[in-house]
Amino acid sequence: MKLTGITVTLLLAATMTSSCHTKYLKKFHKEAKREDVGFAKIKLKKDTVRVVYQELSMFDFGKEEIKPDAQTSLKRFAGLLGKYDKIDFIINGYTDNVGTDEVNNNLSQKRADNAKTLFENNGVSAPRMQTHGRGATNFVEPNTTEEGKAANRRVELLLFERPKTK
Predict the structure, then answer these.
(1) Does residue 16 lie in a domain region?
(2) What pLDDT is stored for residue 123 in this prediction?
(3) pTM of the model
(4) 35-61 residues labelled b (16+ CB within 10 A) or e (exposed)
């Protein structure tokens, strides 16, 4: 049985949280939906909040640098995350389907790492974040048009409440 990257990540997030929504995560989700965090689709599913910037072109083809409009949106989101210090998250980087798996996996990891650096530079502590390069997987749009390919060159965030320590 082959698990996709997003499935593995969701399983990881699920094991790191309790079995039901927490009030804290629900409060974050409600505020994130209300705030203007720039083109983000924010969904609460079980114990995870998924943030996807599907309508925003985050990266140019073959580049790891976050585009200025995407930086602005991610900085706004970092400000919101700063208010919820019990939420940790995974940053998954993605590419379109052009290129080899090796190139796309490396590029997607660099994109995730750059997003982590942006969050760190905007007040989010590094221990709260993990990064994963997912390559050309889990498309949000078909790769049949330039717009679809641009949408797939992205990072996604999976947020979960940090497990309580004893």
Answers:
(1) no
(2) 96
(3) 0.84
(4) eebbbbebebeebbbbbbbeebbbbee
Is the model's pLDDT at 36 over the cut of 60?
Answer: yes
Is residue 148 included in any domain, yes or no?
yes
Average pLDDT over residues 66-93: 94
Tokens of 6: 């997003």
User: What is the domain count for the chain?
Assistant: 1
In sequence order, the β-bridge partners of residue 51 are 42, 157
Q: Quick check: is 67 in a domain?
A: yes
3-state secondary structure the chain: CCCCHHHHHHHHHHHCCCCCCCHHHHHHHHHHHHCCCCCCEEEEECCEEEEECCCCCCCCCCCCCCCHHHHHHHHHHHHHHHCCCCEEEEEEECCCCCCCHHHHHHHHHHHHHHHHHHHHHCCCCHHHEEEEECCCCCCCCCCCCHHHHHHHCCEEEEEEECCCCC
**CATH number of the structural domain spanning residue 144:** 3.30.1330.60
Span 122-140, average pLDDT: 96
Q: Average pLDDT for residues 117-143, to the nearest whole number?
A: 96
